TrEMBL record:
Protein name: Molybdopterin molybdenumtransferase
Molecular function as annotated in GO: molybdopterin molybdotransferase activity
Species of origin: Kibdelosporangium banguiense
Family that this chain belongs to: Belongs to the MoeA family.
Taxonomy, superkingdom: Bacteria
Amino acid sequence: MPNTTTRLRSVDSYRATVSALVGDLPIEHLPVPDCLGLVLAEDVTAPIALPPFDNSAMDGYAVRSVDVVGASEENPVKLPVPEDIPAGRTDVVPLLPGTAHRIMTGAPLPPGADSIVQVELTDSGVEQVRVFAAVPIGTHLRRTGEDVREGATVLTAGTVLGPPQLGFLAALGIPRLPVRRRPRVLILSTGTELVEPGKPLAHGQIYESNSVHIAAAVQEIGGVAHVLRSVPDDTDALYETLEPHLKEHDLLITTGGVSAGAYEVVKDALTGEGVEFVRVAVQPGGPQGFGTYRGLPVLTLPGNPVSAALSFELFVRPALLAALGNPQIDRRRQRATASSSMKSPAGRRQYRRGYYDAGTVQAVPVGGPGSHLLAAFAQSNCLIEIPEDVTEVPEGGEVDLVMLIP
Ligand SMILES: Nc1nc2c(c(=O)[nH]1)N[C@H]1C(S)=C(S)[C@@H](COP(=O)(O)OP(=O)(O)OC[C@H]3O[C@@H](n4cnc5c(N)ncnc54)[C@H](O)[C@@H]3O)O[C@H]1N2
Ligand code: MOO
């Protein structure tokens, strides 16, 4: 009897299943430059103040403001210049009343000085200097702790580390950061018809593309992708290919071989080996599998390229982001009006590829619902989400979008 009674899992419950399978990644202390895109696992306090010492914001002369009162082009004030203080000078050279030290940007302010006269307002003298303008106290000074006080909490756990955060933490002299380890994801495509790009295609063969998409998507969220050579529809080939790699990874993602045909290599190889095959109420992306194969968490995605990509987007991406400690696991959403009508199967949440036009606030469906339409996906900037209980969206109807761009 045909198996038409398999219970469909809801999108939300399957998301939770995948997140629980992936779990949290362990915390490790990584060199700051290696942390781009990772997430702080603990709060960071400032080990030093920034700036760490009072210093000059300009190339010029450190003076006491009272010594240059009344200075002008016509009546310059002449001061002897006993010291030159380039940036990086570490000894302390106090300023005596009635003198000026030549000083460069970033050099420590000499005790006794309270202002900087920038070089453009002087004759640039070396032994002595003529100052052509008065400066109020505090001119062109950068004060200790003005940016950060020593001991202050400067970034909190959950902060995503981009270039500004990494540069700032380096400025504090912090060499390593507590972050959750990058997920190491093993990727295996299956299908006898698959050929590596660059090689000739025979009739009936296609280029393997799922692993390229999935690996890029893993890397985009901070993971490390390890792509295996694709395997034909042969369970022994699948076991042998996986065997050497089961230990050093956090997750295995396979694509293909999970539906109802005669050669379902992933289903055949992993049924009874800790992997459960289910159907999710989503289109594309219905046939899914999850479990643990010999200690390694596994997600088996359907082979159709858009189905595999959407499965990653809907289930794997949020799970990996959560595993990394990222508080922002969902894409930005947007309301829009549909530029044309769309049909959707009853009881399934459909994701159509779309183009969101911010000017007209319209969502334009790109291509049809078919899960082989790769060009349409590549030309999209959003997914149009059609809920389970909606079978038709009329032209001009309101839709929710999942934005694929920031
Ligand atoms: N009788 C039924 N047939 C199908 C059903 C079903 O319920 N009953 N479900 C359909 C749905 S929905 C999907 S999705 C696919 C999933 O099938 P598989 O996971 O077994 O995937 P394959 O059959 O191996 O491949 C499907 C399709 O995708 C191409 N493909 C596969 N891997 C790659 C790759 N790495 N790169 C590029 N393209 C790939 C493959 O050539 C096929 O065209 O099953 C439906 N059928
Ligand atoms: O549900 Mo399949 O994943 O449409 O293509």
